[in-house]
């Protein structure tokens, strides 16, 4: 009996020890059953969107001119690690451009930049077929839910180049080789002429229309006709440097456009009105990427946005002229734009803008008349 009692006592003691150990382990088991907390900050983010951007050019890219300037902007987009780009050059306005734009949309481009005025209607037409694509049309005025138009206040740079040209002419006759009589070109001629006359009230600007954006032979012939008329400074609204070359060959001065054209006429080139599309093209692509891009907008970027400027003035330009031009440039960069502030006269000598009044943007965008001092017609 004693042995049984002793065995029972040992068993009871073991049971008690087991119970104590079980109680001690219980809190850990309960803790292990609690769901693990998820660190939301460490959760994998959604992969960023890669933007595919297309560009359509009216002339060859080359190494100067309007399409060259746009392609420099494309290169800034291509440098982004989240973007890829493609372009088609020398696309005629009209049916050909519609085909090229539609082909890009079919290939899955997220944003398409159509960079010539005559691409406006084809852009609008194709945009209706591809509402998921963002379209940016340069220099036009039509827009829709997925089409915005854009341009720059290149007239500001035109005015500055006019200041230079007005100070450098000896004959008081300046020539201007111009593409088409549309508001964009007319506005630039007027701004240039106002700059010329600010430095030389007796000077006149003679205009010859080529009715083409890009035709080097025709552009050069137009420049020669102005040289034959006694012009000693040749400016242009054309895509090639042919007018610059004609001035160089004749031993007179020139003013370029779109990009710095000094390399084509180093002895003639006074300066150029130039484009810098890169900063804004990058912003557009960023907006498409993050979903903040808006259609149905009209964007008109200025010298403050670094989209328009002038090329360095040539060594033949006197320091006092450079100082005058740079002072006006500083005003424009600061946002003070009085280029189209009256009094302004038209070709007939009639006051069309009163003293102190400024032409509204809408009227500038539709400008179809020449200021006093321009010799030529708007047709």
From TrEMBL:
Domain ABC transporter substrate-binding protein PnrA-like positions: 51-326
Keyword Hydrolase part of the UniProt annotation: no
InterPro entries recorded: ABC-Purine-Binding, PnrA-like
Annotated Pfam families: Bmp
Signal peptide annotation: 1-24
Entry keyword annotation includes Signal: yes
Domain of life (superkingdom): Bacteria
Alphabetical UniProt keywords: Signal
PANTHER family per record: ABC TRANSPORTER SUBSTRATE-BINDING PROTEIN
Protein name: BMP family ABC transporter substrate-binding protein
